[in-house]
Amino acid sequence: MPQLDPRQQLRKQIRLQRSALSPLQQLEASQAILEYLQDDPEFIPMQRVALYLAFDGELDLSLLINCLWQQGKQVYVPLVDPTKNGEMCFHRYQASSPLQANRFGIGEPIFDAKQVIDAQQLDLILAPLVAFDSQGNRLGMGGGYYDRLLAQISGDKPLVIGLAHDCQQINEVPVQAWDQPLKRIITPSRYWCW
Ligand SMILES: Nc1ncnc2c1ncn2[C@@H]1O[C@H](COP(=O)(O)OP(=O)(O)OP(=O)(O)O)[C@@H](O)[C@H]1O
Ligand SMILES: [Mg+2]
Predict the structure, then answer these.
(1) What is the pLDDT along the chain (194 residues), one digit of tens a residue?
(2) What topology does CATH give the domain 6-193?
(3) Which of 154, 178, 185 to mutate to test ligand 1, by most ligand atoms within 8 A of the CB atom?
């Protein structure tokens, strides 16, 4: 059998650990993230928030999404942009949004170009990840979507925060030249800032 490269091996290992978390651990993690954000004065004025619909044991943001909707804030989720070659876009996600199953079987909004927002208009992007290290290096699912997007963002807006379970921390991410490090990561036990 061909050997997986180190990044692929890490993805496989950490995804398995993440998927093994119990429903209670998942719930407690979701509640912890909600509390960090609700207590963060920076978060209160933020109106346009991009996040993700969890799968594969990713930290579930359903509680946060409901909270944002109740506060009248605008929620966006990443979709692969069918009008562009291999680019991700952020698409409005409302309680009333018609959904269809994506390639992971997760319901996501049906693409409508009018509901796509330019990333620079967002106040906050909550980014998923597979593994991270104590320097803020990030390993994603392997599509390069966030790397390409984050490479275009400069300055303080939008604020980008990676979200992960504690078990997703590894000693050292074997970084590649195109990987975009994160300046902030929140896990249930810690708010990392670099
Ligand atoms: N800024 C960029 N410009 C062009 N290609 C890029 C850029 N960033 C990443 N890529 C390409 O994307 C591919 C996947 O990158 P990588 O393995 O780092 O994905 P990832 O960080 O795990 O995924 P994601 O960013 O979607 O979470 C690489 O082969 C790389 O060539
Ligand atoms: Mg990368």
Answers:
(1) 667 799 999 999 999 999 999 999 999 999 999 999 998 999 999 999 999 999 999 999 999 999 999 999 999 999 998 888 888 999 999 999 999 998 878 889 999 999 999 999 999 999 999 999 999 999 999 999 999 999 999 888 999 999 999 999 999 999 999 999 999 999 999 999 99
(2) Rossmann fold (3.40.50)
(3) 178
In angstroms, the CA 184 to CA 43 distance is: 13
SS3 content of the chain, % helix, strand, coil (to 5): 30, 25, 50
Question: How far, in Å, from the CA of 129 to the mean position of ligand 2?
Answer: 9
